[in-house]
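pasting for ref
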Amino acid sequence: MGIVIYAPYRGRGYGVTALKLMLDHAFRELGVEDGFFQMMITREDYLNGNTENR
């Protein structure tokens, strides 16, 4: 898992916070099957606000 931060905002600790939030959401909100979970969203879904669990 990784985080890409726009260059002018790098080095300010945003990546660490974003990664912690993603992991927290993944383990608390997403379904787990056979010990694995998957986070996936298309660009179109994101831009249209369709962020429901898949």
